[in-house]
Design a protein that fits this description.
single chain; about 260 residues; alpha/beta; Rossmann fold; 7-stranded parallel beta sheet; 8 helices; about 40% helix
């Protein structure tokens, strides 16, 4: 049956940045499709763990700050998941931060902090997960979280734009290398969602109105809007999808 292709029963996922917002919604969506989920964040994960358990799946919380992630740290995180669950099938690189300032005023500290988490940790975790998939002689799914700023320049967020543009390119590069290994690497590019990342825009009446006027759907995205695309990319339904950057943006890019 076609719906069986979307089932994740027996699979294990690792979702970073899962304490709230997009990461929490993705983690719960994967659990609703049948996966057990390891959730990682520097913030408390009790709410996400409870939501996963409420749908009858097992959750494993990893409280960890991805700042300064090295290959060794990434390998340790993946090992913690495989030790707990016995396997890892899906990695969702969602964790990210943003620093807003004019480019003329951007500090080296802010630049490096954003690149470190939004790009460096993505690569090292993807590398560690792929090494695990290969060592276990199994297929794997890697889902990166890109952005509208993987396509556009944005305003006042040069480090975030640089990192998210690089995530899109990295997704394609890894897909080219790892598709022959039966590892799917794709990315979701969320539009403008009602999360902490967009709080500054939503709190500015003029900017908020201008943004909503451009979105054909005429609303901010809800984190739950990402559940379906995450399940698709994590499941056998996307077995022939490699290197795609899939916008979930209420039609923003179509304007």
């Amino acid at each position: 049956m076609i719906l069986d292709l979307f089932q994740l029963t027996g699979k294990v996922a690792l979702v970073t940045g899962a304490a709230q917002g997009l990461g929490a919604a993705i983690a719960v969506g994967l659990a609703e499709a049948g996966a057990d989920v390891a959730v990682l964040d520097r913030a408390p994960l009790d709410e996400t763990v409870g939501a996963i358990q409420a749908v009858g799946r097992e959750a494993f919380a990893l409280v960890h700050d991805l700042a300064g992630t090295t290959p060794e740290i990434a390998a340790f995180i993946v090992k913690a998941c495989t030790t707990h669950f016995g396997r890892l099938d899906i990695l969702v690189n969602n964790a990210g931060i943003i620093r807003r300032s004019p480019a003329l005023e951007a500090t080296e500290e802010d630049w490096r902090a954003v690149i470190d988490i939004d790009l460096n940790s993505v690569f090292f975790l993807a590398q560690a997960a792929a090494r695990q998939f290969v060592a276990a002689a199994q297929p794997g799914k890697i889902i990166n979280v890109a952005s509208m700023l993987s396509y556009q320049g944005g305003v006042l967020v040069p480090s975030y734009t640089a990192a998210k543009s690089a995530v899109a390119g990295l997704t394609r590069a890894l897909a080219n290398e790892w598709a022959p290994l039966n590892i799917n690497v794709n990315a979701i590019a969320p539009g403008y969602f009602a999360t902490d990342v967009t709080a500054a825009i939503r709190d500015d009446p003029a900017r908020s109105a201008a943004m909503l006027a451009r979105i054909p759907a005429k609303r901010w995205g809800d984190p739950g809007d990402l559940k379906g695309i995450a399940v698709f990319l994590a499941s056998e339904a996307s077995s022939y999808v490699h290197g795609a950057i899939l916008p979930v943006d209420g039609g923003w890019l179509a304007r």
